[in-house]
Structures are given as structure tokens and as C-alpha cells.
Amino acid sequence: MNMAMIGLIAGMALGFAGYFGGFGAFLLVAALGAVGFVAGRFAEGDLEPGEFFRTRGERRR
Predict the structure, then answer these.
(1) CA-CA distances (angstroms) from residue 58 to 24, 46, 47, 52?
(2) What digits encode the pLDDT tens for the residues 5-53?
(3) pTM
(4) CA-CA distance, 52 to 10, in Å (whole number)?
(5) How far apart are CA 44 and CA 39, in angstroms?
(6) SS3 sequence, the chain?
(7) Which residue among 10, 25, 26, 46 is least packed, with the fewest CB closer than 10 Å?
(8) Burial category of 18 from C-beta neighbours within 10 Å (exposed 0-12, middle 13-18, buried 19 and up)
């Protein structure tokens, strides 16, 4: 499944949540989708926990 199709499905889910559940449901679905996306990236090995918990003084070169 390509990224355009995944974006379409995510947009439709957010649209349905916003229409039927209101703005609060829209925000909840968007937040849970973001958490699921990050968890999926961790599971695939594309992200490492150190990328989120690095201090300000540390910079990647």
C-alpha cells in the first residue's frame, strides 16, 4: 500500500471522526494515529528511542 493510499484512509478516518464525534473526537483520533505511527516506526526499526530523548546540547552531524 503506497503512502497516498494510507494518507487517504487516515484523512477519511479523521473526517468521519470530526463529522460524527465533533472536534474532540477528531483530536483524539489524530493523537492516537500519531502514537500508532510512531510505534509502528519503532517496530520497523526506523526510529530509535535516543532520537526523542536527546538533550539540547547534543547535535547530529
Answers:
(1) 37, 20, 17, 12
(2) 787 788 888 888 888 999 998 888 888 888 888 887 778 777 777 777 7
(3) 0.64
(4) 24
(5) 9
(6) CCHHHHHHHHHHHHHHHHHHHHHHHHHHHHHHHHHHHHHHHHHHCCCCHHHCCCCCCCCCC
(7) 46
(8) middle
Neighbour tally for 11: CB within 10 Å: 10
Phi, psi of 58, deg, nearest 5:
-85, 130
The grid coordinates listed for 21 are: 464525534
Question: Does residue 9 contact residue 20 with C-beta atoms inside 8 Å?
Answer: no
C-alpha cell at 33: 494515529
At 59, list the grid cell. 547535535
